[in-house]
From TrEMBL:
Protein name as it appears in the record: Monooxygenase
UniProt entry tagged with the keyword Oxidoreductase: yes
Organism expressing this protein natively: Shewanella colwelliana (Alteromonas colwelliana)
GO molecular function: monooxygenase activity
Oxidoreductase as UniProt keyword: yes
Length: 101
């Protein structure tokens, strides 16, 4: 069963196009993570937050990625990473055009 992973953390920037230029390589590498189906990058310059919403094939893949990603962010100086794994209600999500596979 697919699992949704929601991640956010305090982030000072850069945001927007500067963030894109800086993190394109990272974004490309995420496509090769086991079980990852897609990611939506999230950012808020006003609230100084970064993060993402991911869809994984299963809970094990989502939890493994979260542990690895939190460790990677810690190496980048980000101490606290909030991550939650959710079940996906396919029936209701389909009504609202969710990009599920």
């Amino acid at each position: 069963m697919n699992k949704l992973l929601q991640v956010d953390f305090e982030y000072e920037g850069p945001f927007g196009e500067e963030m894109t230029a800086m993190l394109t390589g990272l974004a490309e590498s995420i496509n090769h993570e086991p079980g990852m189906i897609w990611k939506i990058w999230t950012e808020s310059a006003n609230d100084k937050l970064g993060g993402g919403i991911y869809l994984f094939e299963d809970e094990a893949s989502a939890k493994t990625y979260l542990a690895m990603h939190a460790a990677r962010l810690k190496e980048m100086g980000i101490e606290q990473v909030r991550g939650k794994v959710f079940d996906v209600n396919r029936s209701l999500s389909t009504i609202n055009r969710a990009p599920l596979v």
